[in-house]
Amino acid sequence: MRKILNLEEVEQIAKDILEKINKKINKGATVIAFYGDLGAGKTTITKEIAKQLGILVKVVSPTFVIMKIYKTKNDKYKNMVHIDAYRLDKSKELLNLGFNEMLKDKDNLIVIEWPERVEDCLPSNTHKIKLDHKDDTKRVIKF
Ligand SMILES: Nc1ncnc2c1ncn2[C@@H]1O[C@H](COP(=O)(O)OP(=O)(O)O)[C@@H](O)[C@H]1O
Ligand SMILES: [Mg+2]
User: Fold this and answer.
1) Which atom of ligand 1 is nearest to the CA of 40?
2) Which residues of 119-128 are buried (b: 16+ CB within 10 A; e: fewer)?
3) Which residues have any ligand 1 atom within 6 Å of their CB?
4) Is the entire prediction scored with pTM above 0.85?
5) 49-76: per-residue pLDDT in tens?
6) E strands along 48-107, which residues?
7) Are 131 and 141 in contact (CB under 8 A)?
8) FRET label pair with 26: which of 44, 78, 122, 123, CA 20 to 30 Å apart?
9) How far is the CA of 26 from the centre of ligand 2 (A)?
10) Residue 6's domain is classified under what CATH number?
11) Between vectors from CA 81 to CA 135 and to CA 52, what angle results, nearest 5°?
């Protein structure tokens, strides 16, 4: 459990998350699942990860489009797939968007917000990261 008190710390957290996931060798895609309520910081950390992967375009929350795919400048993860499952009713809807094909591609880093909505689609090697917040000054992260 680590406290994230401010946005400056988000940079270090994103760095540590990338370092951690880099240690594991996957056959297919690398998947990060960010659990946590509205305002916990899921999108904020995802944006910082995107920045560190060299994504230059603005990463916005994919709440209404469900999924966005970005090209990175990173050698290991050539694409970052950002998914917001909040508006999905069933995990089948994610499968209809081609999720299983994306999972097969080693070049993909898949980041999922609201993973509890699609829990049964998540591969067993998903990096599950839990965010919690009481108010804007008390944020914690577990990974
Ligand atoms: N660690 C943090 N320190 C300060 N503000 C934060 C932090 N994480 C998120 N915020 C702020 O909280 C708001 C909501 O964060 P967001 O990342 O959109 O949450 P989520 O995606 O979990 O709903 C944003 O305005 C963001 O700037
Ligand atoms: Mg969000």
Assistant:
1) 22
2) eebbeeebee
3) 4, 6-7, 10, 36, 38-44, 113, 139
4) yes
5) 999 999 999 999 888 889 999 999 999 9
6) 67-71, 79-84
7) yes
8) 44
9) 26
10) 3.40.50.300
11) 70
